[in-house]
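Notes from the pairing session

We agreed to fold both candidates in a single pass and log them together. This is the raw record for the first candidate, unedited. Please don't reformat it; downstream parsing expects exactly this layout.

Candidate A
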Amino acid sequence: MAYKQRIADALLERKLQGKGAVLIEGPKWCGKTTTAKQIAKSVLDLGDSDVFNQSERMIALSASALLEGATPRLIDEWQTLPALWDSIRSAVDKRSDFAQFILTGSAVPPKEKTRHSGTGRIGRLRMRPMSLWESGESDGRVSLSALFNGGQIDVLHCENDLEQLAFLTCRGGWPQATLLSDDLALDQAIDYYEAVTNTDIQRVDDVKRSPERARMLLRSYARNIAAQTPYSTLRADMLQHDSQTLNEDTVIEYADALRKIFVIEDSEAWNPNLRSKTAIRTSDTRYFVDPSIAAAALGIGPNDLINDLQTFGLLFENLVVRDLRVYADALNGKIYHYRDANGLECDAVLHRRDGSYGLIEVKLGGTDNIDAGAATLNKLAANIDTNRMKSSAFKMVVIGIGSYAYQRQDGVYVIPINLLKP
């Protein structure tokens, strides 16, 4: 199955028009190099061991020689030679021109290995595994951009089923997996999980870490997915399977390492202006960059999700958040969550830089669940002080299973995930 152009492709082109260099960051296997190579005119592939070894020797003699080549020049897996960062920044200053370099990286190197931040010279672009629209599994009949611009939707019929949704959740949005079928596709996330726990979590900063503890943390994260779970709770969960001493600082250190290789991606709290004095809780919500990692960490597959709809619902929420994050990038926005001291929660808020925002609840399906989600959205919208900020551009319940997209009488949209696009 061929897939559509990546959203990041257009974002990269745009950023290069105003920056001397652009860094594409994201997890391994998400398609960073493929996106970069569509634009690059020359390549330094540091992921190739022979090229890396030669470059490591050369950098001590003349780092600038590694940067020579037709532009934009791609420096693939740049973080393996972090000293290149300062050389690239210097080259951008000297050349005083845009679109000189594209860097890709699947890990964040320690700050002490670079002297300069690159601010103003090097732009950043975050890539994630593919959204359903990019993989061709959403037909895109409902546009978030159109809803932000005041557009309306008619009643739309669609087809979806529980088995296919469970498969997509466990398969994830890994580009190679979208080209495979059945068990071969499911193997990609499992292989990724094994690589992370056995190798990548140690390579990020050359700190020796226990693969078993990495697996325990990922399992605990998966069991607490879509919740504002404190590290103390994650530690207690891990201690049930760890006979050694484990303090909270160690859990935080492992989690930070996983963030640096873009495995986990928590959702920050949204802080709107409210009519009431209700306290807003600011803890992050736990998510993976892709729901398939959670499935791999738990050792479950599509049939397990179908037999455990509660877990399915939580992993489905992660899938929706993944897609919304990809779409938000295209809309100059960011995804947050909302929760206050009174227990009112909103799964996702798509807030754009122009101040517009949409309120979104996620439900696997079912009339009662949709009603509950709509009630939450209306309650939150009513508590926002529209004298101090805009009203929401839309309120939406994103569902996994349902035959129709439509707008309820209370104004809330109900949209199956396989109809969405940016």
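Candidate B (folded immediately after A)
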Amino acid sequence: MKNIVILGGGIIGLCSGYYLSEAGHKVTIIDKGDLSEGCSYGNAGMIVPSHIIPLAQPGMISKGIKWMFDSKSPFYVEPRLNWELISWGLKFYKYANDKHVTRSMPALRDLSLLSKNLYKDLSSKLDTFYYQEKGLLMLFKTEKVGEEEYHAGKEALNLGLEVDFLEQNDIPNLETGVATSAIGAVHYKSDAHLYPQKFMSFLKEEFLKNGGQISDKTEIENVYFKKNRIQSIQTNKGLFEADDFVLAAGSWSPELARLFNTKLSILPGKGYSFTLKNQGVKPEIPSILCEGKVAVTPMANDLRFGGTMEITHTGNTKINKNRVQGIVNTINEFYPNLNIGLPKESETWYGFRPCTPSGMPIIDKSDTYDNLILATGHAMMGLSLAPATGKLVQELVDSEKLSVDTNLFKI
């Protein structure tokens, strides 16, 4: 049994803590917040093996430049004279090619399918988080976007995922909850969804039952080393010693990594969501409204909408109403009978997704310190990939054979 400290209490940190505690280790999770908020609480709740194409892909830069002049667009890079942003952008440009996408797709597929299987295991243990396997509909309104989605669907089909291609007349046979103006859709039958807040509560309870400990509102002040190992960390709540440390702090990972003499190229991608409670009329199947990149997820009696990817910094805490209005406009274009209005600021959630320039997560042992593991950079896929990441962290700590190949998830 090892004594392990995890830095970060989001879904990656909690899943890592869960699998490590299940394996018999003594685990403490440290977080500067109170574990009641964060990127995993307000996200779309989608488990998406369909998402095998990384954010760094051909055409993304030209789209990004076009969208930069539209305050309601789904993707935006906040212009700043900042070396970190410039460096990230240059690396993103290097990765945005067909070769990178072709290499990445099987790795993302394997990680996603492992995660989905682990979610199924967790839901069979105690399904308090509304896990359902209804797939995902990629709805589109234009022929151009339809061609892009058809191509992506064929790639997924070639990689062994279950995919159906729907004409306009086919959609109402599958989506019986609400009418849509989409002219076609790709149905990824391998996908699933859940209620994020309820899953986080389940995970915390299971972790604590296993003897895990949580130290919230805990700020790291100093780190102590001995040769090529981390010995302890000093916080505002005292000294924490451990055999192994796991860095899983999402968009805050780079600033913590600097304390460990490690450089991570990660920028926060700000996204928004809002949830309609006890929504009687709602879609039956989770969907992405492709032209506006808006996610739509039925969650028990509720309905959640989410979208936008704004590459920014963690100090950007204001809610941009224009970006939320862009989400609302897309919803009403696709679902003309829903009549969704702009939510109040108090009802609008935002979070920061940790984005690497390659679009790939980092799940890796540190090159600098023998007892440091990095688990971060999952962008929009944090919830989807969290159980697989947590399992891999446990396998790395225990020097076990890894469930999937992690070569493309290195720093």
